[in-house]
Design a protein that fits this description.
The chain is α+β, with helices and mostly antiparallel strands. The protein is 36% helix and 33% strand. Strands 1, 2, 3, 4, 5, 6, 7 and 8 form an eight-stranded mixed beta sheet that branches. β6 and β7 form a beta hairpin. The longest helix has 21 residues.
């Protein structure tokens, strides 16, 4: 029995800890550390954090972000944004008896060619007719498709996560019927990670340039 325990300890002793940084849309904020035997083994691994861990705002604790490591430089792991979703208990708290929940899931493409699947949820003040549901869903789709066409990937993600797109949907849809709440509840990146260009921070680029000159 002692031998296997020592083997496990030895394997952990060989691992190194690498700091992980959020994607460019979130200012390359450090989001934690991750252990690995080598830099190569980090590529493709994902990390999930709450938005408040980046902003320090506890009112954003219900927003879950997912990042995937795509590059390791100077023992620093850089990521791409892979998606976000709102916590289930938060979503359940929005739905009330006697209201209607209008869900919409739309595939869109941003100005710079990144494909996304966006889920939006609209909660009305009271129950509404099927025809009103369809009109609200159509308006939500129009807003999301329009913003995707106008915005680059990072810009769209920022507006979605921080609630600007939901606010625009709210302002359009409330003309159909009084609303209680609108949320972009989930986004999934459909474009494969390596196809999304990685913009490295200036200080990292400078570090690489100096190393290449030295070599």
């Amino acid at each position: 029995m002692p031998a296997p325990r020592r083997a496990v300890r030895d394997r952990w002793a060989l691992k190194k800890w690498y700091p992980v940084y959020a994607s460019s849309a979130f200012g390359y904020a450090e989001i934690g550390e991750i252990p690995a035997n080598s830099e190569r083994s980090l590529i493709g691994r994902t990390m999930e954090v709450r938005l408040y861990q980046i902003t320090g705002d506890f009112t954003q604790a219900h927003i879950k972000l997912k990042f995937q490591i795509v590059k390791v430089i100077d023992r620093k792991a850089f990521t791409q944004f892979k998606g976000f979703e709102l916590a289930r208990d938060y979503l359940r708290s929005l739905v009330r008896r006697g209201t209607t929940k209008v869900d919409g899931i739309f595939d869109v493409e941003t100005k710079d060619g990144v494909k996304l699947r966006v889920a939006v949820m609209v909660i009305t003040q009271h129950r509404i007719k099927t025809s009103q549901e369809k009109l609200i869903r159509k308006l939500a789709k129009g807003v999301i498709e329009n913003r995707a066409r106008m915005l680059a990937f990072d810009e769209f993600i920022q507006e979605a996560v921080l609630g600007k797109i939901a606010s625009e949907v709210y302002n359009k849809a409330r003309k159909v019927y009084p609303l209680r709440k609108v949320e972009v509840r989930k986004i999934k990146v459909l474009t494969r990670t390596f196809e999304i260009p990685l913009k490295l921070p200036v200080e990292i680029q400078a570090s690489l340039s100096k190393k290449s000159v030295t070599v």
